[in-house]
Write a structure and sequence with these properties.
By secondary structure, the protein is α+β, with helices and mostly antiparallel strands. Helix content is 22%, strand content 26%. The chain is built from two helices and seven strands; from the N terminus they run ββββαβαββ. The strands form two sheets. The protein has a five-stranded mixed beta sheet with strand order 1-2-7-5-6, covered by helices on one side. The protein has a two-stranded antiparallel ribbon with strand order 3-4. Helix 2 links the parallel strand 5 and strand 6. The longest helix is centred in the middle third of the chain and has 16 residues.
């Protein structure tokens, strides 16, 4: 994983927001797109007939950025205790129906990184467009 990080370990905001915010033991991330060093690596709207496997890398990069944003809110001796919610937004043409299969790439990435604590609630949502013409955007809610 090579997330879109600035020198301080947080993804680079593309607007007037912070990558993640912590309140108590809860961490909320902004929506993260598949960027490296501020540059979108994948673009476009998924066609109705898209094979989820061809877009897994975009999902994994977006999820890696969201995880990095969440982890940037941890203290030196802390770790995430749970991913409470994962939201996967997918820019797709009408007729695309593999939202859950595409979101499975994010769930599997989180499980590979964190183990079973990574599997929580999830929503996979089709949208008309995403910022910068990104094909996917991911947002997390985590607990310390």
């Amino acid at each position: 994983m090579n997330p879109d990080q600035s020198g301080n370990g947080k993804p680079i905001p593309q607007g007037l927001y912070v990558p993640a915010i912590r309140r108590g033991d809860m961490i909320f991330t902004a929506g993260m797109t598949p960027r490296r060093n501020g540059v979108l690596q994948f673009t476009g709207i998924l066609p109705a007939s898209a094979d989820p496997a061809q877009h897994g890398d975009a999902v994994i990069l977006s999820c890696g950025n969201a995880l990095s944003a969440a982890q940037s809110q941890l203290g030196a001796d802390e770790r995430l205790s749970a991913i409470l919610s994962l939201t996967v937004y997918i820019a797709a043409e009408p007729g695309f129906t593999a939202h859950s299969k595409l979101a499975d790439y994010a769930s599997q990435f989180l499980k590979d990184q964190l183990g079973d604590i990574a599997i929580g609630c999830r929503a996979a949502i089709g949208v008309a467009t995403l910022p910068g013409n990104a094909p996917v955007e991911i947002q997390l809610v985590a607990c310390v």
